[in-house]
Amino acid sequence: MPAKIKGTFVLLLLAGLGLIAALIYVSLTNGEFDIPVKDIARTLLRIDPNPDYDLVVFEFRLPRIVIAVLVGMGLGVAGAVIQGVTRNGLADPGMLGINAGAGVAIVVFLYFYQGQIREVTWLSVMAMPLFGLIGGLLAALLIYLFAWKGGRLEPQRLLLTGLAIASGLSAVSLFLTLRMNAQDFEMVAVWTSGSIYNANWKYIASILPWFAVLVPVIYARSHTLNLLQLDDDSARSVGVRLERQKAILLLAGIGLVSACVSVAGGIGFIGLIAPHIARRLVGQAHQRTLPICAVVGALLVLAADFIGKTIFSPVELPAGIIVAILGVPSFVYLLRRRKGRA
């Protein structure tokens, strides 16, 4: 990596981390119950702890912030992987049906777990990502079966098939949700819209192993992702075991999405927007794009969650709705730009 490009990348990465730190500060100190920064510091450092501050910081705000950062990172990285493997800049875990597949599998789990959803147990939080992975994989398999034509995967068929399957799976999810009792229906309806208001440390513990394993696997194959941007014959000619590497990367990406969906529901568009912003900032090389995708995704989800819980207070909008408000115009812009190049 040339020194100038490396310097720009490091500068952008540090700037992004600084913005995340600023958003964390604002999220910790502001809300229905404002806490001065000195009291936040005393609470975190355990200097004369105040039970009220402990409750607000450690039980409500801090878990929510950590979940927002992790979910944003996971969706941003997964979006870059899926766009890289499919060579389609409009590919996104939500639009390809992976979010919906993971979501409907988790709704099935919650449907048979009715009456106990409000009691967050280790069984439920550790099982939900596994159910999400199964659902995401089944959705991805269906999409591949319908989008595969003439021995290759057509990007346009992939996008249209993903949208169709996502719509069908969302209908199944809604049907099951409507059959739940009133209390469980309310919680699942909020969760499926992409909310992290119910974040807690158990949720964080349930998804950390997925991130610890899958993110290094993806980053270790960043050079392979670069080579996958070539046509299949060219990629094979430089020694890439094409189908094997695609399968590993897609499996890792779907695993990340499933973990994120299990704790935050269906937050869409992060996997679409973050890779485009990252590529504009640092270019096409995935060694630089993946870390920037993680930072941009974390910033977007953190900002969306903060806006949703403060701007419309005392009413709270799920982060997924805020992201969708920003994401739909971005998708239309990308679609029109892509059409103009065709």
TrEMBL record:
<comment type="similarity">
    <text>Belongs to the binding-protein-dependent transport system permease family. FecCD subfamily.</text>
</comment>
<dbReference type="Pfam" id="PF01032">
    <property type="entry name" value="FecCD"/>
</dbReference>
<feature type="transmembrane region" description="Helical">
    <location>
        <begin position="62"/>
        <end position="82"/>
    </location>
</feature>
<dbReference type="InterPro" id="IPR000522">
    <property type="entry name" value="ABC_transptr_permease_BtuC"/>
</dbReference>
<feature type="transmembrane region" description="Helical">
    <location>
        <begin position="290"/>
        <end position="311"/>
    </location>
</feature>
<feature type="transmembrane region" description="Helical">
    <location>
        <begin position="7"/>
        <end position="28"/>
    </location>
</feature>
<keyword id="KW-0812">Transmembrane</keyword>
<keyword id="KW-1003">Cell membrane</keyword>
<feature type="transmembrane region" description="Helical">
    <location>
        <begin position="158"/>
        <end position="178"/>
    </location>
</feature>
<protein>
    <submittedName>
        <fullName>FecCD family ABC transporter permease</fullName>
    </submittedName>
</protein>
<feature type="transmembrane region" description="Helical">
    <location>
        <begin position="94"/>
        <end position="113"/>
    </location>
</feature>
<keyword id="KW-0472">Membrane</keyword>
<keyword id="KW-0813">Transport</keyword>
<feature type="transmembrane region" description="Helical">
    <location>
        <begin position="317"/>
        <end position="335"/>
    </location>
</feature>
<feature type="transmembrane region" description="Helical">
    <location>
        <begin position="247"/>
        <end position="278"/>
    </location>
</feature>
<dbReference type="InterPro" id="IPR037294">
    <property type="entry name" value="ABC_BtuC-like"/>
</dbReference>
<keyword id="KW-1133">Transmembrane helix</keyword>
<feature type="transmembrane region" description="Helical">
    <location>
        <begin position="125"/>
        <end position="146"/>
    </location>
</feature>
